[in-house]
Amino acid sequence: MRTESAPTRRPATDTGGRDTAVSVRGLHKAYRSRGPGGQGYTQVAAVDGLDLDVLRGEIFAVLGPNGAGKTTTIEILEGFRNRDAGEVSVLGEDPDRAGRAWRARIGVVQQDSRDLGELTAAEMVTATARYYPDPRDPAEVIDAVGLTEHARKRARALSGGQRRRLDVALGIVGRPELLFLDEPTTGFDPQARRSFWDLVTGLRDDGVTILLTTHYLEEAAQLADRVVVIDKGRVAASGTPDSLGGPDARTPLVTWLDGGELRSLRTDRPTEAVARLAHEIAAPDGEIPGLTVSRPSLEDVYLELIDAPGTTHQSTEEQQ
Ligand SMILES: Nc1ncnc2c1ncn2[C@@H]1O[C@H](COP(=O)(O)OP(=O)(O)OP(=O)(O)O)[C@@H](O)[C@H]1O
């Protein structure tokens, strides 16, 4: 009775003829890793033949378990890390060779906050704005990230979530065409996360292309026009948040207990299924034991796509 959706392995390179902000073909990056028992070194692939395209003006989310290769990929696109092989174009240039003019067109919010020193939040945003040819108004940026109240605090004295907002302010003050957000809302309270989502969709509506990594599947579902799931350095699936995992992945799921055993059924006709169960196995009080009817969320689909949740690669030596 049960219908399963098979994980899809479609390329993340279907642009429908639209302009691309980022194009990646056959990307490879390996790190040196100590061999078994600490003997010698081997190369361990962090990114293992990745293809993807990010369209101009879209929010594109990169999902995947810890160690999947997301940050390595993003840092290669940002020009902060060398690749071993593959073609990469970001705003029409190869990040390995691009210069200052190119860097001024991108905004970066990395996973780790920068060293915040002695400056106040406002001073940091103002100082950063000076590096760009056409920056946004620092006060307006501070306001947009919800830091006005804390603008005169030393950056070091901000809370974790407030520092993350400052990171975002520093990433957008240069008026980037393309904004990289690597796990931007880690440590945000739910209200701050929602106002951050408004900020990001507002940037997209102004024409900014946004490449986002996140472990919050709800964030990807809310924000992203398209998502890619990376697993073990490769694309496991890609598409719009609603289409990820193939046409059957979001089919409603009916679960119930039959003689204490959990049973489930994927069906487009859940009412009919429940009526049949009510007829066949309902208890004397008319209830179907343990009955639930749900539509799989992006998180459910994601967890089915990933071989084993929490999979990590072998630990490796620190390298550039
Ligand atoms: N500088 C480095 N030196 C050596 N190995 C590294 C380095 N950076 C990452 N790795 C390894 O490469 C693999 C991919 O790491 P990466 O940080 O790209 O994953 P990720 O998907 O961003 O993970 P997370 O969700 O935990 O941030 C992991 O096995 C990691 O240990």
Outline the structure in words.
The chain is an alpha/beta fold. Among the domains are: 56-78 and 100-247, 3-Layer(aba) Sandwich (Rossmann fold); 253-299. 26% of the residues lie in helices and 26% in strands. It has nine helices and twelve strands. It has helices at 70-77, 100-103, 121-129, 138-144, 160-172, 190-205, 217-223, 270-281, 298-305; strands at 20-34, 41-55, 59-63, 85-90, 106-109, 178-182, 209-213, 226-231, 234-239, 253-258, 261-266, 292-294. The strands form three sheets. It has a six-stranded mixed β-sheet with strand order 5-6-7-3-8-9, with helices on both faces. The protein has a three-stranded antiparallel β-sheet with strand order 2-1-4, covered by helices on one side. A hairpin with a 6-residue loop joins strand 1 (20-34) and strand 2 (41-55). Helix 3 packs across helix 4 (138-144). The radius of gyration is 23 Å and the shape is globular. Mean pLDDT is 86; it is low at 1-10 and 308-320. Bound molecules: adenosine-5'-triphosphate (ATP). Adenosine-5'-triphosphate is lined by residues 31, 46, 64, 66-72, 313, 315-319. Keywords: Antibiotic resistance, ATP-binding, Nucleotide-binding, Transport. It comes from Myceligenerans indicum. One of its GO terms (molecular function) is ATP binding. This is ABC transporter ATP-binding protein. It is found in: Cell membrane.
